[in-house]
Design a protein that fits this description.
307 residues, alpha/beta, Spore Coat Polysaccharide Biosynthesis Protein SpsA, Chain A, 7-stranded mixed beta sheet
């Protein structure tokens, strides 16, 4: 089977040579593709010198790079890894073997256990737990490290993935895509290392964490619209009742409606609440149709271990 190692890169000149060499050694039969995302250092020259095929994606953001890589590269199995030399290249063989043996669509290399000081910062660990737990509550509890940058995919996963995200929220989109289509997935523990001296993380903890949270809510609206709009219905309905109760009580006691604007507001909010509920039912039917089409497209490609 053809194996492609995909490495999204932005200013990783200090680490990319080690990544390319390590994956060439771990997977000598694989082609290594480095996709540069407007680096201002010598990432491109170093990657080429190390033996990688180097391409460029001008739209800034990891999600844009992932979209381009998945569209451009043809292979049976895809290994995606960050270009910062923090992931364990020899684990790729184990991840691929499990993908093929169990006919899986995605295997995630988790970073939950690392012995190297400073490899996985406490703030990032905490944010990862919160965001992974939030997505697990919304879509299903099948991942412990949803934001890992080390993954192995089947061809049918890659070619059915819509890749709509722009930045680091692409990992959330990858997880929800697998959960929504109920794909067979797994996680394996892999060693995780600190960046090389002088290398700086491109992840902005609060900004990117907020974008990941917003992405999860957008995907909730897309993949579970009835739940999403039912929550809005409940909130607006309760607000309407709270506003209407004093008006109704006063009317029962005096036969008058002295707070007429409040009555109009409560009525309008309740109408809006039922419009949200109706939208949820309509979009839920649309979602089923979209999911059926995605499933049919996914089934056009054979499983990794199929004969």
């Amino acid at each position: 089977m053809d194996i492609a190692v995909l490495v999204p890169c932005y200013n990783e000149g200090l680490a990319i040579a080690q990544v390319v060499r390590d994956f060439h050694a771990a997977l000598p039969e694989a082609a290594v593709y480095v996709y540069d995302n407007n680096s201002t250092d010598d990432t491109v020259a170093v990657a080429k010198a190390a033996g990688a095929a180097v391409y460029s994606e001008p739209l800034q953001g990891k999600g844009n790079v992932v979209r381009r890589m998945f569209a451009d590269i043809e292979a049976d199995i895809y290994v995606m890894v960050d270009g910062d030399a923090t992931y364990h290249a020899p684990s790729a063989r184990m991840m691929i073997d499990r993908l093929v043996a169990e006919n899986l669509d995605m295997v995630v290399g988790t970073r939950l256990h690392t012995d190297q000081e400073g490899a996985f910062r406490h703030g990032h660990q905490f944010g990862n737990k919160i965001l992974t737990g939030f997505v697990a509550w919304l879509f299903g509890d099948r991942f412990r490290d949803m934001l890992s940058g080390y993954r192995v995919f089947s061809r049918r996963f890659v070619k059915s993935f819509p890749a709509l995200a722009q930045g680091f929220e692409t990992e959330t989109e990858l997880a929800v895509h697998a959960l929504a289509l109920r794909m067979p997935v797994a996680e394996v523990e892999t060693p995780y290392f600190a960046r090389p001296p002088g290398s700086v993380s491109k992840l902005r903890t609060y900004r990117d964490g907020w974008r990941i949270l917003i992405t999860a809510l957008k995907l909730l609206k897309e993949e579970r619209p009835l739940f999403f709009f039912s929550v809005l219905f409940g909130f607006l309905g309760m607000l309407s009742v709270i506003l209407a109760v004093p008006v109704v009580v006063t009317y029962g006691e005096t036969g008058l409606v002295p707070r007429f604007p409040t009555a109009i507001l409560a009525t309008g909010i309740m109408i809006l609440a039922f419009l949200c509920l109706a939208s949820g039912f309509i979009l839920d039917n649309v979602k089923h149709g979209r999911r059926e089409m995605k499933r049919l497209h996914y089934l056009q490609f054979k499983a990794p271990g199929a004969r």
